[in-house]
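User: Structure please.
Assistant: Input sequence and predicted structure:
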Amino acid sequence: MSTVKNLNNFPFAAIIGQEEMKLALQLNVIDPKIGGVMIMGDRGTGKSTTIRALADLLPDIEIIKNDPFNTSPTGLAEAYETEEIKIPMVELPLGATEDRVCGTINLKEVLSGGSSTFEPGLLARANRGLLYVDEINLLDDHLVDVLLDSAASGWNTVEREGVSVRHPARFVLIGSGNPEEGELRPQLLDRFGMSVEVKTVRDAELRVQVVDQRTSFDDNPDEFSLSVEKQQDELQQKVIKAQEIL
C-alpha cells in the first residue's frame, strides 16, 4: 500500500480546486458518458494520489476468467467460468508506443496459419475501468487522438496489412498535467467532458496538516486506513447508489 486510499480525506478540501477535482472524478465513474476529466495543477497538489485512490471507491466487477478484455459474462448465450476483479486502473506511460497502447496483430502467426493473431494492449486492459494519463500535455498528438477516439466510441480497432481486429474499449479517461511543463492544446481540452484546475495550498497550518497525515500513513498504513475506513465505505456506497439510480 503506497498511497492514501481515502479519496474523501486526502489532500484536504482547503486546496483550491480539490473538492471540484474529487467531484469531477466521482461524476465520471457514476456516468462515464460525461467524457472524462482533465486535471491541471502544479506538482504536490495531490492530483496523482487522488486519481489513483479513485479505483478503491468502486466495487469489483465480474469478468470471464482470464479474459484480456475484461468481458462481462452478463447476457451471453454461452456459460463461462467467471471471476471478480478490482476495477482496472491502467496508467499510460509517456514513452508508450502505439502498439503497446492499441495492441498489435502478429502477422507472422497469421501468415503461418497460427490462431494467436492479436496481442492486446493497454486499451484492452482498461476496458470497463479507468485509463490514467499523467502529463497528458506532453503525450504524442497521435496517441492522444487514439485515446480520445476510443474513449468516445468505446471501441478500439487495429488494422495491419489487411487484417483487422476490433474490441470494446470502454473506460473513463483521466488526464493530468503540470502547466509549467508544457502547454495544453485547446483542441485537446475540448475533447474532455470536464476540466479542473488545482492550485497549491499556501496556508502554513494546512500544509503542516498535510505532512502530519502523510507521516501517519507512512508510519502505519494499516492503522491509518482503518481510521478512515468508515468514510471510505460511506463514499463508496454513495457512488454505487448513484450508479444504480442512473
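The CA atoms of residues 137 and 183 lie 6 Å apart.
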